[in-house]
Write a structure and sequence with these properties.
Blueprint: H1 19-23, H2 40-63, H3 67-78, E1 90-92, H4 94-100, H5 106-112, E2 113-114, E3 130-131, E4 140-141, H6 146-159, H7 162-167, E5 169-171, E6 176-177, H8 189-198, H9 200-213, H10 221-228, H11 231-239, H12 244-263
Antiparallel strand pairs: 1-5, 2-3, 3-4, 5-6
Helix pairs in contact: 2-3, 2-9, 2-12, 3-12, 8-9, 10-11, 11-12
Length: 268
């Protein structure tokens, strides 16, 4: 597998600190032509590219990664949900909160949270994650929608701590866990959270920094897998071992939709 070129001014350690990348147009200025009978997924992918395609193009030219490959990740991770400032897409991983905090605070944790394989919940740890704000009463799904995600995050911030709760939460179009804040050049999870709430530019730059910094097993391998469309290897190191085949299949489908859209003539 050939080495994908690394990204930017070699004198700048993190992409968010690269002045050139801060000034590249975020949006793609040539609207994509969506087929008359396009699916919801294809419309969502086209919307992502309209919002972020300018920066995608700039970075993918430097890494030799097909923009459709990056679009596949964005769609799988966040479903193409539009970015809203101060309301970026998040996902609280309750089983991670248990590992970092709940194990040492079982009574409080079990009064407010449960997940697959714990507190009488069936399934795998990443499944059936629920919360309740009171010590008794009905539980609600954490992952029902973004309102429930933010409500569960607020509860975790109050019961555990702000930083611990953020460390257990993924954020943005690329859904990066905030315990990776150092790989992206931030001093704390809170700093990463604030940056991702401010601008989608930080989502894109953070994604590429993460892919070049994470050991998979070597640093830079995630970019190689993405370039080669080795979806299984990418899914394993990006999302973990839990659902590799499922994620790989979704990435492949996302890529096929994105590649079809990007291959169509642009509006003049």
């Amino acid at each position: 597998m050939g080495q994908a070129r690394l990204l930017y001014d070699p004198n700048v350690m993190f992409l968010k600190d690269d002045a050139e990348l801060q000034n590249v147009d975020l949006e793609f200025r040539e609207p994509l032509v969506v087929p008359p009978r396009a699916t919801f997924n294809q419309h969502a992918i086209a919307a992502v590219y309209t919002r972020l395609g300018g920066l995608f193009q700039h970075l993918t030219e430097k890494t030799e990664v097909d923009p459709a490959n990056v679009l596949a990740v964005w769609f799988v991770e966040s479903g193409g949900v539009p970015f809203v400032p101060r309301r970026s897409v998040i996902r609280l991983e309750v089983h991670r909160l248990f590992e970092l905090w709940g194990k040492r605070n079982r009574e409080t944790f079990d009064s407010h949270f449960r997940f697959g394989g714990h507190n009488q919940q069936p399934g795998n740890p990443w499944e059936n994650q629920e919360y309740r704000t009171q010590d008794s009463g009905m539980y609600s799904s954490v992952h029902h929608n973004q309102n429930s995600e933010y409500a569960a995050l607020t509860l975790a911030q109050v019961t555990a701590s702000n930083e611990l709760a953020l460390l257990c939460t993924s954020i943005g179009g690329c859904q990066l866990l905030m315990d990776n804040f150092r790989m992206l050049g931030y001093e704390a999870a809170q700093e990463m959270y604030d940056a991702f709430q401010q601008s989608e530019r930080n989502h894109v730059l953070g994604f590429f920094d993460y892919c070049r910094a994470k050991s998979a097993p070597r640093q830079g391998d995630l970019l190689q897998y993405l370039k080669a469309r080795d979806w299984s290897s990418f899914a394993k190191y990006y999302n973990g071992n839990g659902q590799v085949a499922t994620y790989a299949a979704k990435l492949k489908t996302g890529y096929e939709n994105a590649a079809m859209l990007l291959s169509r003539p642009k509006l003049s």
